[in-house]
């Protein structure tokens, strides 16, 4: 069989006229400084791995040839970058082509004896480049008597000096990424996009003869893997401490508490989310977490981005010594250790702002390259050092920055500028930064997805019922039933259809009580809000059939809830607030209030839970190995130790965590007659001691671990809210023989991979939701104009040596209040004693105390960004401390 002769494929002609009329090849670089003739670029694998931000930039316009060898190597080394590369090939505004060099006899190469895979791939890339140049030269042979036509060249782009040397020996035109970019148009902006990790000739941050190592070298990968296998080292995800940037932790399998990491050296250049290898110290060296707030920005505010890293900031030295020598609660000691290697980096693009104080006074308007600090908006991340020519124009902007490398001789990681998101505090920039920071995809749906929707769009209506109409295939007509929905105000995804009616035999037919699964067509008689449904249910003057149906549903829901509680289900709490907008067309918030939970909220919840449990049973019976289920594992008892201790010492209350039922009963007894909100606060704190619920594949875990601890249900899934839960719906449709299941959904390994992504996306969406509440609270306060400052009651939920953490239930937000003056801290009893602001006496503040705080939006002097600031005004004024 002959190999395919097609040389360029997977590239549709761009649809836009502007692109169609362009020449395929690049005439020359700017003013012909680097390449005088027309050319195509052929990057090697490492260029795509390290310089994708540059390649994707709209300012980077040369046509690009992507070899099959390169495409496959990128796929094996980084799936996210591979997906970005595929997107690049399909993009209309980029001239990119894929050449299947491995399928062509003239360009395919066989790995030689003792040749490494990397060397083989480099040789394959050079051979394909050479062949392509020859191929282009034969496309237009010279005609006697006519001027010679200038033909384009294929230029190999590589930052591997050895590869460039071998290419030059073969007569192949090649160059480094930096050299090519320096000769391009818009080179000042393109140079900012260069990853410092990818270029072998990029200028160093500081030229020094021998830089002092500030961190230990990582162990070799083989040593790490052997150590983990032997149990001498432990693997886990690094978590930074949001209150103290000089501490972190790593949860590891088999230990009740995470491994504590104290100080920069022991955290050894790990970044939030990295998979790391840790060495645990002997038990005699174990410590408890520090009880002091140490803020990175405040500690390092005088640091200079251009300083050599040996010039360690004095304030950080003091902070490190304080952390190392701090008095700690011996009862809270936990495994302590150090990071000895990175197994997998979690680096990505981070939302940052340029630290204006890192610009020298002489460079505040200069367009020359300078080194500055980019401060991430997340408190969990270190400052990033970057070089840019755009620093003055980026002040006051939200920007994206990618970390490229973190050498053991550098106090900070180094990175590069990706793009600006817009002006700090502008709603558009802040909203996009929230989505980017929590990795929430927000690009428009692709054509393949949109093609699944009816062509009529939002004008689609249910077609007339006919036997030959595919829309009615295998669907029951339930339009005569009194069905309604109950949702929050302005809800767009109205998907909880409810109904109940008495039957002649005395039974009750309800929407999901009769466990019979079917596709159907309904006609909702009313779309209620929770408040509207509650008013209708409670109005004794209303006795129509729809109102009776709501009352019947509510009576059933009460019995369902009682049954769950008797089985040991937990009634937990989480802070939920309602944002009031200026109008239905506007997204400008004008006020915030705590959500009011009504009886109708519980009504909907109970039937949603019942539907989810019923679907879980059905799909697990039909697909025992691949059913998409959701479980909530029992938390380790150690998770509750601190809360139990606080309750005992501050309120004389006990918390029994031996089972979910025991926990539910003891939570009911956690009451303070003088403070009705106390019980809700305890439930919120108990919720934070729990493990997170997770999606899982039924065939991947033991049947005894299927249960949902919080709901006291032996099996559960997420079926309701179908716009977010396609997998369970597809499985249910297949389980009732309405459709067939795609072959991939029968693969346990495939489902495991899918659900890993789903779990991660779910966590990130939850964090984005919490962050957006604080953002909108800030906007609502700003909308008050001169009345921006508000006072609210708050509860102390944590005490530190130099501050307190407070929770404002009305706004659903937490805040940190710090004290600058000396305080007395009783860590054993969770009490801080501060000088009284009104007399020479002292005031004690403890966990669970009710305090009064002043909340305002303060503009940060450095970032110019508004952030919610809390100040204690009772029992003391923290401004005086």
Automatic annotation (TrEMBL):
Pfam families: OB_Dis3, PIN_4, RNB, Rrp44_CSD1, Rrp44_S1. Residues 475-738 form the RNB domain. Belongs to the RNR ribonuclease family. One of its GO terms (cellular component) is nuclear exosome (RNase complex). This is Ribosomal RNA-processing protein 44. It comes from Hermanssonia centrifuga. The lineage of its organism: Eukaryota, Fungi, Dikarya, Basidiomycota, Agaricomycotina. Residues 304-317 have a biased composition (Acidic residues). Keywords: Exonuclease, Exosome, Hydrolase, Nuclease, Nucleus, RNA-binding, rRNA processing. Residues 298-317 are annotated as: Disordered. GO terms for biological process: nuclear mRNA surveillance of mRNA 3'-end processing; rRNA catabolic process; rRNA processing. GO terms for molecular function: 3'-5'-RNA exonuclease activity; endonuclease activity; RNA binding. It comes from the Eukaryota. PANTHER family: EXOSOME COMPLEX EXONUCLEASE RRP44, RIBONUCLEASE. Residues 39-165 form the PIN domain. It is found in: Nucleus.
